[in-house]
Amino acid sequence: MNNRVQKEIAKCRDDFDYFCNKYLKIVDKEGNLVLLQPNTAQQRFLYTLVDNPWLYVLKARQLGLTTMIAAKLFHKCLFTPNHKVAVIAHTRDAAKTIFEIYKRYYNNLPKFLQFKTEASNVNELVFFHGGYIKVGSASSNSFRGSTYNSLHLSEFAFYDDITSAIQSVFQTATPNAEIILETTANGINDAMDIWNDQNGFGKLFISWLDGKEYSSKKKIRFSVSEKTYIDAHELPPEKANWFAHTLKGKCLNNINTFNQEYPISAEVAFITSGQKFFPMIYQVSNQVDKIGWMWYYEPKQYRTYLAGVDTASGSPTGDYSSVVIMDITDRDNAKVVATFYDRVPLRDFTQQVLVGLKKFNPLVVVESNSYGLAIIENLREDGYIHMYRRTKYDKISNRWTEHLGFATTQQSRPILLSRLHQWVSKQKLDPVCVRLKTEMNTFVYNEKGKPEADKGKHDDLVIATGLALMGLDQVADYEEEVQKSTRPQGIRATLEWEMNTGKLYSEEKGNFHDGLETLFSSKQHLSSGYFKTLSLVNRRKRS
To answer: What is the rounded distance in angstroms from the CA atom of residue 460 to the CA atom of residue 322?
Structure first.
């Protein structure tokens, strides 16, 4: 091998962009073999991957993301001895198609870059330097028994059993593995939960607007509904033309189909307009119009309670101020024990909140936006100490500061609602309250994909319930604080403690539990997202 070839190999190894633009070939839409020139969507993926070795890519269709992911993993495997790549597709046909991409990359390289292979079959490319690329479907067991440095889960929202497949595949990852989850949306399922969870994955959404080919100069008359969509998203003329043509043609004039196939936002990707947020419909009675406090269970000593407080202005025609208190002693069978629902002035609402807090002594999560700040201050003045706290970085003082209450933002609201959706859909929370059930029946996705109350309805108790569940993040410290002051004394009190908590009392440890075990009774009860990948995260930290 001459010096010029050695330098070229080294340059290809060290510069992916150079290697990609000069040597990797694909088949374009006209069937021609051409060099891979990254488009806007592909460039965004490459840029984001640099700082996110764990990356979740949610995308519109036909943007070339699978092709670019394959290019990146092929480059890494080709030039890194013993680097093993696993690609899991949603069907066998899809796996075959993806493997053809890898074979095409290899077969069209110049001879000096076609490093010797040990084997090449219908789903595996094995190099003599120990690295290999294996492609299969989610239903295959062929990935078990090996460990992989790179994992690509393609169109994983369409796996038959998303949770089981991901858990199984993650067991094969090395501690420092690169993991790419890539998919278009497939309705409300575990893929949506993983997207909304804080789970260690970087999140990249790629809209159909990022597709250069999604444009048309052919003008078309817009319907009223099409014009609404175009105006809402401020589409330029050629994008508007393409949208209207595609909606009428490929999507049979069904905006819900278009939103799933060609989403313009992550929220829209997973849902359809007007679709219910919660999976069940509750039977309700004429009790829904009652205001004030509703008590469903009496407080019991030694049990753990959370409360959520959503504060309105008190206007007689505005939203309702609401409180939801729940018993979460049994994390798999939580239940609402009391609710408050009324339009009252802020000071009067504080007194009503205190009625519930003094009765159940819960950890209370007050939404700190707008009017909620007044409630937090009033609770402080009244000496209530069990309040949810959040940390915030202060740029002026260059330090982290602690603040009372939960700040609902564009980033935190989906997390709150995702947690609530999980608990309700998995039947880990009994809503009990008729007023709450009524709101849950009319909590839907709007035309932009945002979950909210249907027109003319309210969602104040829904939000208060979600706020209460956010207290799970701090419930361990709260339980420890309360238990220190209420330890059972004597056999009778110990028996009562065990009956009310459903736990065995340990005098030595004071029955305190730390970490994530306070949130879930066993690994089998872990929620999707963060907890699914926790063990692997810890492995990476130790390495």
So the answer is: 6
